[in-house]
Each structure stands twice: as structure tokens, then as C-alpha cells.
């Protein structure tokens, strides 16, 4: 599969009850980019991400990963390239042990058990969670679950890492460790999040969604400095770009 682009063209989507989620999205992401996807609740972020790996397929328009359209017949191929980490790790962890959860993806893309076992150890080591290998997922902390959920995706060696609210419910140390981990992922990253400070740390480019539409797409620092744009989209600037609440000066 060509790894040069992710392309959404004229993508629209309505939920079964008729609620609109995406409205004529045009977006191209090139190989190696780190892109933040920001917007208020209900802006369409999660729905857009889920189109990239075929959780949803386009109702109108198209989605392509490299040269491959995201349609039901190509989902196995697409999911080898795009790894989606869900907002809630409990949606991703369902096996009796961490090792079995991380092995699930490699085994289901046809790798032999020996290769899957090697990938389990490599992926868990990459997120500093090899010591959790034999633990049941329900006995893990929030930060540990997040690390293991990422490992389940890394074990499939994706070229594109897609994360939905990666810092949700993490304590400050776990959040910092996650940022350090994501800095080390050299392929394409797409992060949908309310954590604009994390986007400022990790993403050179930011896309703003509002009511299912792309309202802005450009350099992260410039997007976050546009207070009128952020206010119109029900967003606040990152904390470190806001003035001090006591003296009014910039941080």
C-alpha cells in the first residue's frame, strides 16, 4: 500500500436517527505528519477518526488510505496500515490477560503464533508495560490501560496511528509519559483531543472541526493564536497560551 496520504473527499455522514455528524469534509494528510484534530463535544472528531479504519464507511464522499479506498472489501488491508486507539481503553481490552489482548490483532491479521508472541513483547516494551504482560486488564490503572491499548495497536505495526482523546483520565505523570511515547512514533499521527496543550507539544498542524465541518486547517501555533476562531468553535486556547489569571500577563 502506498503510504503517502490519507484523503477524505466530500465525506458526509448521518447517524441512523438522522443526526448529522460530518458535512462535506475535504482533508489530506501526508505521510509523517502529526495532526491535531480539535473541536467541541459533538464536532465530529470521533466519527471522522472511525472512518479512517472502517468502523464507519462513507455514506457520501470517499476515504482513501494510500491507494486503497476504505470500503467493506478492503478493511483488512486498511487496518494493517491504520491503528485506532479508542477513547476508552475498556473498549479495546477484553481478553483475560494483557498478553492475549496485545496478541489478538497480530493473530487476526494472520501472523503465526511465534511472530505474534514476539510482537507482544516488543509492543509492551515500547510502552514500558512489559511487566504487565500476565496481568488481567481489569486490574490495571487508567494509565496502564492506556499504555496497553496503545500496545495492542503497535503490535500490528501500523504506518498511521490514530488516537481518540489519548490523554483522557490520565494523571499528570501518565500524560507526560504518553507525550514522550508519542514523540517517538515517527510515522503519521492523528490525535483527536480536547487537550490543546498536548496538540501544541506533538502536532505541527491542527484541524478545527465545528458542527461536522472543517473550520480551519493550518500551523498549530497560528490556529491557537486565533482567539476569534477558537471562540466561534467553542474552544479555549491552550493553558500555556493564556494569560496569568492573577496578573494578566502571558505565561
CATH topology: Rossmann fold
- Shape summary: globular
Supply the helix-strand structural class. Answer: alpha/beta
How many domain regions?
A: 1
Q: How many individual β-strands?
A: 10
CATH homologous superfamily designation: P-loop containing nucleotide triphosphate hydrolases
- SSE string: EEEHEEHEHHHEHEHEEHH
State the low-pLDDT regions, or none: none
Count of individual helical segments? 9
Helix content: 25-40%
> Biggest β-sheet, characterized?
6 strands, mixed
Assign the CATH architecture.
3-Layer(aba) Sandwich
CATH class annotation: Alpha Beta
User: Span from first to last CA?
Assistant: 45 Å
Radius of gyration: 18 Å
Percent of residues in beta strands: 15-25%
Strand numbers in spatial order across the main sheet? 6-7-8-3-9-10
Output mean pLDDT: 90
Can you describe what's shown?
The chain contains nine helices and ten strands. By secondary structure, the chain is an alpha/beta fold. It has one domain: 3-Layer(aba) Sandwich (Rossmann fold). Strands 6-7-8-3-9-10 form a six-stranded mixed beta sheet, sandwiched between helices. It has a four-stranded antiparallel beta sheet with strand order 2-1-4-5, covered by helices on one side. The chain is globular. The model has no long low-confidence stretch (mean pLDDT 90).
